[in-house]
Inverse folding.
């Protein structure tokens, strides 16, 4: 059974601080790793699709890295703002015709 | 360009009833996936439809069934509702590359 784990489950961060959290996935049969941002009462929004070992992607203050050999990805948020409060989900894709396997998410709360 | 749309937004049913949820994919997408998200959990894959057929299925009982129409829209049907079926049901349509999911706003189902 393929399993995706995210840690921590929740995180409280002071506004202005930087933070990061982890997604762990099986290191075999890697095809792609997705990061999504999910705000309460909204749909999940795609942040990054990562496909190559060593990939590093950036969107504004948010960036992500990928290590397919050891099976983990980090999501970093620099200078957290209240609008960053959301649940961050990662999803592992083991193949082009396979469904995504989702982690349970990291709930990020930014304290003003 | 309309994104993924779902109806209804909220629904209340009683145990034993049947429910049908609807989804229209993003323009240009031909694959639709359905997810169940319980409180505090990541999305759980129910099934995926492509070319009007169920292509993949997650670990859900036969009470959960679906359909895809020639215009790529899709329905999720749940029979003999149980209290545990109360959840947020998300529909996502996929881009051809890397199975990147674009989510609709979801339907919140409450079973009393």
């Amino acid at each position: 059974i393929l399993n995706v784990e995210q840690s921590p489950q929740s995180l409280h961060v002071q506004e202005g601080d930087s933070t990061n959290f982890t997604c762990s996935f099986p290191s075999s049969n890697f095809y792609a790793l997705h990061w999504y941002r999910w705000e309460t009462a909204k749909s999940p929004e795609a942040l990054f699709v990562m496909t190559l070992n060593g990939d590093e992607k950036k969107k504004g203050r948010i960036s992500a890295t990928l290590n397919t050999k050891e099976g983990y990805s980090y999501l970093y948020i620099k200078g957290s703002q209240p609008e960053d409060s959301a649940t961050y989900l990662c999803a592992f894709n083991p193949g082009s015709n396979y469904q995504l396997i989702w982690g349970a998410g990291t709930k990020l709360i930014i304290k003003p | 360009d309309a994104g993924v749309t779902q109806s209804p937004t909220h629904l209340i049913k009683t145990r034993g009833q049947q429910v049908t949820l609807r989804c229209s994919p993003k323009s240009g997408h031909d694959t639709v996936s359905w997810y169940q998200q319980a409180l505090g959990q990541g999305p759980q894959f129910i099934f995926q439809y492509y070319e009007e057929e169920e292509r993949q299925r997650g670990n859900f009982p036969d009470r959960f069934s679906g359909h895809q129409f020639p215009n790529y829209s899709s329905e999720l049907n749940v029979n003999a509702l149980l209290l545990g079926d109360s959840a947020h049901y998300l529909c996502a349509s996929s881009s051809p590359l890397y199975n990147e999911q674009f989510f609709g706003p979801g339907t919140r189902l409450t079973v009393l």
